[in-house]
Amino acid sequence: MALGSPTVFRRRLVAELRRRREAVGFSGPQVAKALTWSTSKISRLENGQILPNSTDVENLLDLYEMPEPDRSQLLALVPQCSAPEWWEKYSDAISEDYVGFLGFESGAIERWDWQSLVIPGQLQTEAYARAIIGTGYFGELTPRQIRRRTELRIERKEKYINNPSLTSKIIIDESVLARKIGDESLMAEQLHHLQELSERPNIELQVLLNDQGLPVPVANFILLRFPMLENLGELYPDVLYVENEAGGGVDEDEIRTHRYHLAFARLSEVALSPAESMDFLAERETKWASRPVSG
Questions:
Q1: Range of 241's domain?
Q2: What percent of the residues of the chain are helix, what percent strand, and what percent coil, each to the nearest 5?
Q3: Is the pLDDT of residue 146 over 70?
Q4: What is the chain's mean pLDDT, rounded?
């Protein structure tokens, strides 16, 4: 996953345009009148509902008297806002909410995962991914949808593990490691793979043991953080993705994302340390590998 994505570039640009408008004291209708635009155009642009073009952005920056080098930096974002996303070829196989999440994920530099049901998607082996997608966990899927989602999962994983700019902290519930997906050899392979990934300097994995209970009553979630832009600073807040029965949804509310950061910190506090988690994974791998493969 490259540092930045069209989704994040677009959100950054419109957030800064809105911030600058508010800083100079213009209302949306005042901007629309000055540029002979409709009021709906400025509203849709600032809400990210339409793609900004260079001419519109230049007109706004002129009106707001945006100084250099910030002006040039924002203009440089414009062409990046409309660049193709890597996952677009899979749009027929994924939901609109998940499309939005993938756009954010591609531009993140930090992420925090809590998972109590299955191995996080970006850590799954191909065999585990194919098995879990085919179980009906994501609803009833056709063979083609299973194949397409598995292909997406594997490509997403490759981009994830080959992105040195991304730092990840993951907490997995012990029950996930005991839940058989596929057969015993598949589970042993998956747990071995988790250990290999955990050796990477930018991936930290912890296991929450069952005897710790559930210190915070939260659903499975992912938190994403984005890079700052030079001179402009932090233009975009953290993003939260919470799984639910309908699939999941992106949440940008600052208060809720903060609460989930606190929840993750509490989970991390009571979970095994990364070193202890590695030992636990090795122990569970041995148990799975020693069992006869069942049908």
A1: 88-290
A2: 55, 10, 35
A3: yes
A4: 89
Q: Determine the residue type at 267.
A: L
Picking from 163, 56, 184, the residue whose alpha carbon sits closest to that of residue 106 is: 163
CATH of the domain at 213: 3.30.870
Residue 230, token pair as written in the block: 């030079």
Largest CA distance in the chain: 75
Average pLDDT over residues 163-179: 95
Strand partners, 229: 233
Average pLDDT value for residue range 259-269: 95
Nearest to 9 by CA among 41, 52, 43, 42: 52
Task: Tell me: do 192 and 245 sit in the same domain.
Answer: yes
Which one, of 241, 118, 228, lies nearest residue 181 by Cα?
118
With a cut of 80, say whether residue 2 has pLDDT above it.
no
Residue 187, domain member (yes or no): yes
Number of domains in the chain: 2
pTM for this predicted structure: 0.87
Asked whether residue 1 is domain-assigned, the answer is no
Q: Please return the burial class of 55, using the count of CB atoms within 10 Å of its CB with bins 0-12, 13-18 and 19+.
A: exposed
pLDDT in tens, 42-54: 999 998 888 889 9
